[in-house]
Amino acid sequence: MSASSSQGIHTLLEAEKEASKIVTQAREYRVKRLNNARTDAAAEIATIQERKNRELAEIQQKSVDQEELTQRIQRDTDERMSAIRQEFEQNKQLAVQKLVEAVTTVESSA
């Protein structure tokens, strides 16, 4: 082997070592980027999930409010209907009596 051949092999070995370092650095950089992307994605998912949970809570609260409103309206309606029925029961005999009087009383027109 000659000195130039030995020098060429040495240069190739050094180039291989340098290429290996570059590949290792690239892999480490890729792993680091993937980990950063996972961390960022997890943070974004947590933010979106928190926002959606707030929206759900608002919708559920509105639903509860509407249920309460519906129940209150139903109670008011029931109370009013009960009062109307009670008034009807109290006044139906008088109304029937007035109708009978109106129908049976003949007024002369002269």
Name its key features.
110 residues; mainly alpha
Structural overview:
It contains one helix and no strands. It has one helix spanning 3-104. This is V-type proton ATPase subunit G. Belongs to the V-ATPase G subunit family.
Task: Please give a quick description of this structure.
Keywords: Coiled coil, Hydrogen ion transport, Ion transport, Transport. This is V-type proton ATPase subunit G. The chain is mainly α.
Number of strands: 0
Helical stretch tally: 1
Q: How do the SSEs run, as a string of H and E?
A: H
Our Rg estimate from Cα atoms comes to: 46 Å
- Helix-and-strand structural type: mainly alpha
Sheet with the most strands? none
Oligomeric status: single chain
Percent strand: under 5%
- Percent helix, as a range, is over 70%
| Rounded average pLDDT | 90
C-alpha geometry: rod-shaped
Instruction: List low-pLDDT spans.
Output: none
| Terminal-residue CA separation | 155 Å
Protein name: V-type proton ATPase subunit G
GO molecular function: ATP hydrolysis activity; proton-transporting ATPase activity, rotational mechanism
Subunit structure: V-ATPase is a heteromultimeric enzyme made up of two complexes: the ATP-hydrolytic V1 complex and the proton translocation V0 complex.
Family: Belongs to the V-ATPase G subunit family.
